[in-house]
Design brief:
single chain, alpha+beta, 5-stranded antiparallel sheet, 1 helix, 5 strands, 17% helix
């Protein structure tokens, strides 16, 4: 996975997770697909973006659904 900050990412089209990580609902994971690449970020840190390949995105989603990150 590659961490980077980019001004070339779309401003619109980000999908927020339906489960905020904070009690006040202000922090969510957000993702957008640009071509074959998926970009993932925290709503609290929108400039800190992780660039994922389709395979990395699929593995991340599968791991979250399987509870692989419940202890993190």
């Amino acid at each position: 996975m590659e961490m980077h900050v980019s001004q070339n990412l779309p401003l619109d089209g980000w999908t927020r997770s339906s489960f905020p990580s904070s009690n006040d609902g202000s922090s969510c994971g957000e993702a957008v697909r640009v071509g074959e690449t998926v970009f993932f970020r925290s709503s609290l840190l929108p400039d800190g973006v992780t660039k994922l390949t389709p395979g990395e995105w699929d593995a991340l989603v599968k791991g979250m659904k399987n509870g692989d990150f419940d202890d993190v």
